[in-house]
Amino acid sequence: MSTLLTYISINDGKIKRSSLEVLSRCNELAEKHGLKSAALIIDQDPAPAAETLKTYGPSVIYTIKNPIFKNHLNTPLLKALSTAVKQIDPRVVAFASTEGSKDILGALAANLSAAALADMSEFDLTDDGVKGKRPIMASKIISAVEAKGTPVVLTVRSGSYDVVEKQTDSSVESIDFAFSEDELKVTLKEIISASSDRIDLSEAEVVIAAGRGVKDEEGRKLISELASVLNAGIGASRALTEGGAYDPSLQIGQTGKVVSPQLYIGVGISGAIQHVAGMANSKVIVAINKDPDAPIFDIADYGLVGDLYKVLPPFIEELKKIKQN
Amino acid sequence: MKFYVCIKQVPDVNAPLQIKDGQLVQDADRNILNAYDASSIEEALVITEAHGGEVEAVLIGPEKAKETLRKALAMGADSGTHIVTSGDENYDSFAYAKILATFFKDKEYGYILCGKQSQDTDSGLTGSMLAEMLNLPYSTNAVGLELQGDHIVVKRQGDTGQEMIELASPGLVTCSNDMNDPRIPSLKGIMQSKRKPVDTIALSDLNAGISEADTKTNILSFEEKPEREPGKKYEGEPEEIARQVAQLLDTEENVI
Ligand SMILES: Cc1cc2nc3c(=O)[nH]c(=O)nc-3n(C[C@H](O)[C@H](O)[C@H](O)COP(=O)(O)OP(=O)(O)OC[C@H]3O[C@@H](n4cnc5c(N)ncnc54)[C@H](O)[C@@H]3O)c2cc1C
After folding, report:
1. Is the CB of residue B212 less than 8 Å from the CB of residue B205?
2. Ligand 1 pocket, residues with Cβ under 6 angstroms
């Protein structure tokens, strides 16, 4: 009852930055409320991540190791989480909001008969639970919410908190867990993944987002060039992921991902609220659109009114020059 | 195979919104079928049209929400159940999932489909809560469904790629609006929907036993998202504005 537990998401052996953001917040809350911050790694090989985590301040690092966790599958993950939570008895179980954590949050809450809060942009402890804020109505409105009981399970939007490094003498404790394939109620047959050397969109410092205005191969080439000059992640609006021009995992917005980079550049994107819901927290917003009345200009810090095919080449040229100096 | 589709009436996020006395007030009365649920209905219709079977839509909501159930029938669902609430309940996802679990307790079906989230609150909890309460295998954020013999294969959008998942029946799937383009009801569909069977159950008659403890979260207040400071628009020669903004991103913003 005195532990704040952060679940650590690992992708390709690497800890997701958004998990470290959540852990940093839990460290801060633990200190403020006189509690203990702990981390939980569930993976086929949790040891390397556990080692890395010692730089990020949890007093205990719990690990569950099993080959079944090579890929995301909800049945074993749910069982492992439920096992861990029953053993650790935390006040809060906090996750970074990812497609993996969204997959199990509701089921975990039902399994534990616990309160669940999804996609929080802020959270703190109360005497008997958690309070915080979350965006609703396609992020037009922020609602203040509270949850009562123990534990409270919650997910946190990426970019809501800063990562703070903190060297600690964390102890590593492994939790016993057995799982037989017979228990699998779902079977993963195949993973269709887009090229793997891509920059993780939700962690990118710079994001270039392509919209319907990027209508052909030439346009996509300009987007790639711009992204490579700025070492940026490429995202897209629904208009382009739907049409197959960009991989569906690159969709930014209400249905897709939430990004909060230092710099977002929207190219040929109108700025529909469902898209804006996924990028409005970017630090600097640049929009390139030929329609001076496009809604994206209402939120852009720098709005370039013009044809993207004419604006991008000199823009890329100039950025290259700046980079070289 | 029988498909149940859980649907919800939601306020249109595009309609003007205000916060009055701490409550969200919508200028016009613009309620719609949740877009993610519309995709669930569409997918159930596509599957049953190809392989036979039936589709029943289930809606929890006040009397007024019946129009949304009618829309599902007009799209092509065979029948509907309306679990009628007063509209004043402060239920959260957990309480709604428990009501649905009570409804489904003695039902037989191949799969239950739900929207992956609702357009107004974006919580995305009810589907997997319901699956866990009914002890069903489930998959969320589906962008494709295919019936193969007696089970379905779900194409699920994960963080970096799509996962192909075999899901035993009975099971539950939550659907993304990236799955399909829901059909617009035809005039014929609308006419036919009026004769389709709708079972109306008062929430109190369902004996779901919803107690205060089942609403585990509360909304305390609303505030408008702070607006961003308006920026500057650059119009004119493409070469010139491109150079100018590139320079400013470096010198003023330090983000290059
Ligand atoms: C429930 C729901 C969820 C949704 N979720 C998402 C989501 O997650 N992400 C998302 O993106 N959308 C989402 N949408 C869809 C969203 O409403 C918009 O339809 C979509 O974002 C539009 O994409 P777009 O801006 O690329 O296209 P459009 O709105 O068609 O805009 C294209 C823009 O490009 C400009 N343009 C065209 N040619 C050029 C040129 N040569 N040079 C410069 N500019 C040019 C045009 O002026 C226009 O402004 C969702 C919708 C619903 C209902």
Report:
1. no
2. A 211-213, 237-239, 251-256, 268-270, 272, 274-275, 278, 288-291, 294, 307-309; B 35, 119, 177
Residue B156 lies in a domain: yes
User: Do the Cβ atoms of B222 and A143 come within 8 Å?
Assistant: yes
By CA distance, what is B170's nearest residue in A?
A: A185
Q: Do A191 and B158 lie within an 8 Å CB cutoff?
A: yes
Give CATH for domain A206-324: 3.40.50.1220
**ipTM for this prediction:** 0.96
- Is residue A11 very low, low, confident or very high in pLDDT (cuts 50, 70, 90)? confident
Amino acid at A311: V
Q: Name which of B114, B123, B224 to mutate to probe chain A: the one with the most chain A Cβ atoms within 10 A of its Cβ.
A: B123
Residue A308 has pLDDT above 60, yes or no: yes
Domain boundaries, chain A: 3-183, 206-324
Q: Which of B132, B160, B238 sits opposite A193 (nearest CB)?
A: B160
Torsion of CA A83, A87, A88, A94, to 10 degrees: 20
pTM assigned to the model = 0.96
> Which SS3 state, helix, strand or coil, does residue A128 take?
coil
Residue nearest (by alpha carbon) to ligand 1 atom 29:
A270
Range of B206's domain?
A: 2-214
Q: 3-class secondary structure for A248-285?
A: HHHEECCCCECCCCCEEEEECCCCCHHHHCCCCCCCEE
- Which CATH code fits A3-183? 3.40.50.620
Lookup: tokens for A143: 């609602």
DSSP A69: G
The reply to whether residue B163 touches residue A273, judged by beta carbons under 8 angstroms, is: no
**Do the domains at A3-183 and A206-324 have one common CATH topology?**
yes
Atom of ligand 1 nearest to the CA of A240: 26
CA A5-A8-A10 angle, to 5 degrees, is: 170
CATH of the domain at B39: 3.40.50.620
pLDDT digits (tens, 9 = 90+) for B102-131: 999 999 999 999 999 999 999 999 999 999
Q: How many domains does chain B have?
A: 1
Give the nearest partner residue to A307 out of B13, B220, B238, using CB atoms: B238
Region A259-274: mean pLDDT is 97
**Could you tell me if residue B170 is inside a domain?**
yes
Most informative mutation of A220, A265, A274 for ligand 1 (most atoms within 8 A of CB): A274
What are the tokens at B99?
């009501």
B65: three-class secondary structure by DSSP: helix
CB A210 within 8 A of CB A236: yes
Residue B241 forms part of a structural domain: no
